[in-house]
Write a structure and sequence with these properties.
Structural class: mainly beta
Helix content: under 10%
Number of strands: 11
Number of helices: 0
Radius of gyration: 13 Å
Order of helices and strands: EEEEEEEEEEE
Strand content: over 45%
Length: 124
């Protein structure tokens, strides 16, 4: 499985950005996918996850109410719509995938496949 993340950039506080993650080599619906982020000097942290087969979604507390994770099955693409962005959302955002679903979807160690990361910078 190969993942390609895109959509990052510079955005003002309160603005929006939509990240995309295209997946190739996936031949089953039995996948879990997620978004993680890593700010300079900090550990990688969970943002949102999606259970591909059921479309069930899960969010970190910081993402809840502002971010929306979704999928386009026909294009094998996952999106992260981020609204009401804050300076503390500035980070390198990674998409990740794993075969099968894990109840520990928030743990980056559960994911075997990673995209290259896309940078989101929120400035005032």
């Amino acid at each position: 499985v190969q993942l390609q993340a895109s959509g990052g950039g510079l955005v003002q506080t309160g603005g929006s950005v939509r990240l995309s993650c295209s997946a190739s080599g996936v031949t089953t619906m039995n996948y879990g996918m997620g978004w993680f982020r890593q700010a300079p000097g900090k550990e990688r942290e969970f943002v949102a996850a999606l259970r591909w087969s059921t479309r069930s979604t899960y969010y970190s507390d910081s993402a809840k109410g502002r971010f929306t994770i979704s999928r386009d099955n026909a294009k094998m693409t996952m999106h992260l719509q981020m609204n009401s962005l804050k300076a503390e959302d500035t980070a390198l955002y990674y998409c990740a995938a794993r075969y099968g679903w894990s109840v520990a979807y928030y743990d980056p160690r559960q994911y075997a496949n990673w995209g290259q990361g896309t940078l989101v910078t929120v400035s005032s």
